[in-house]
Design brief:
Elements: E1 3-8, E2 13-18, E3 20-22, H1 24-37, E4 45-49, E5 53-55, H2 59-71, E6 77-82, H3 86-98, E7 104-109, H4 112-119, H5 127-133
Parallel strand pairs: 2-4, 3-5, 4-6, 6-7
Antiparallel strand pairs: 1-2
Helix pairs in contact: 2-3
């Protein structure tokens, strides 16, 4: 699967890296896997790194995923997407808009530094840097 993740219990952070084109089914599968492995991690803030990946979703699929995010009964948290490339950045801006008013606040950024600043994280020690470079 072109998605890797790490649950950082100490920081209460879910780190996700897309490595290649990711489909709607793969996004759903990773969410289900995380929920089975550690349901509490869904309440953590998240950072999703698309610097080496992308989303392969139609506009209708993207809207459907956003609707699910908006209507899900997850605890309040924040999710920062790092998407330096225009296609993913623009898709995620739509996702950000369509998922608003849900329990999780989503924001998309061009750089990891901006995403970390928004989440109040120190970039040092992030596992996603090691995943992306392996």
């Amino acid at each position: 699967m072109p998605i890797e993740y790490v649950i950082d219990e100490e920081r209460r952070l879910l780190e996700i890296v897309f490595l290649g084109a990711v489909t709607r089914d793969e996004i759903a599968a990773i969410r289900d896997l995380i929920e089975r492995e550690n349901r509490g991690a869904l309440a953590y803030d998240s950072i999703v790194d698309l610097r080496q990946g992308s989303m392969s979703l139609t506009t209708a699929e993207l809207r459907d995923v956003a609707r699910g995010a908006r209507e899900n009964a997850w605890p309040a948290s924040r999710c920062a997407f790092v998407a330096p490339h225009d296609p993913s950045f623009l898709d995620l801006k739509l996702f950000e808009l369509w998922s608003s008013r849900g329990p999780r606040e989503y924001r998309v950024f061009r750089s990891l530094g901006e995403a970390c600043a928004w989440l109040g994280l120190d970039r040092a020690g992030l596992c996603l840097e090691q995943i992306a470079n392996s």
